[in-house]
Amino acid sequence: MFSLQDLLGQQQGNDAVNQISQTLGANPTTTSNAIQLALPMILSGLARNAANPQGAEALSNTLQKNHDGSILNSLDGYLSNPNTDEGIGILGHIFGQKQGAAAQQVSKNTGLDMGQVAQLLIMLAPIVMGYLGKKKQQENLDAGGLSDILQGQQQQIQSSNNPIMDVLGNFLDSNQDGSSMDDLASLAANYMQKNAR
Length: 197
Description:
mainly alpha, 11 helices
């Protein structure tokens, strides 16, 4: 599961990639490559958090309260006006102090600048949570079921022989403490201001 097409279906995935690339001011191929790095990072981060019962329970409760999947029914509307605070909050829970390291890895491997990557991660996080929330509802998953799905996806990512695994390994194993790069909010805000001409 590396692309928005895998997550959302071909048509909705393609539309989302095009819309995101317009927002970022990047071409669709570069954007698509960046998404294929960012999505496994987000999913692997969630899988790690949900690997213990408390983490899985916390995720399940969050999905129950805040992410019922309805975002996927009006994705165009969301992508035209993404909720930056929500995205930042989710990324904080998933990556903690490694938010900057995540953005750095995607930037380094795609050519997008850090501001663009910050904006991309912030847009993707609520979509992933919406996807999981929808799955939880459709399949009536409890915390254990959610954890199983995420662990299964993480194994899929690891066994794919995809070059993403090197990037993911570097990122997940890095012990980088917080730095100014961790401030995704200001990176994204600066990027948006610069391009709001």
